[in-house]
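Support request, please re-run this one:
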Amino acid sequence: MTPEEFFAWQEHQDEPFELVDGVPVPKHRMMTGASVQHDRVTVNVIVSLGNQLRGSRCRPTTDDVSLRTSITTIRRPDVTVECGELVYDTHEARESRLVVEVASPSTTAVDRTVKLEEYKRHPTLRYILLLETVAPVALLYRRADEAWQPELFEGLEAVIALPEIGARLALAEICDGLTFPSRITDAMR
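Re-run finished. Output below.
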């Protein structure tokens, strides 16, 4: 399918799909839906970014808005920050600056390999943020000229600066409402 055919077809489906090399694939193909932790983290990110970006030209979007990563591939990041002019009746972001993928056991491998490389090739992206739900951990890829620099953030006191969109994300806010299982290393202290 072409992206245009895909968007027309998607309008008549009951679940979200991604287009991968011209083939529609259910977004939650290997999932039975988002877990409560996944949903909580996603909502917390949207609320935090929405409050900070209000009045700017940037705004967070849900996975209902697509991101074209190649001629034949369209992804649906959990959260995208779009900084372009608001265009009505479109299904895709045009000037994305940030994409966020929230880890799910069944999608982490694809998010951290295939999707990560696709996102890195997107010309307008400046940040790719991968978030965990089992611990307060985030991996941010920040574009520096034509290279991507990874930064690891751990612990509830960590704050992720996103100056190119005028925002920051505190892991304490992202993880608000979550409890984490104790780790073996915690018991050894």
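The mean pLDDT is 88. DSSP finds five helices and twelve strands in the chain.
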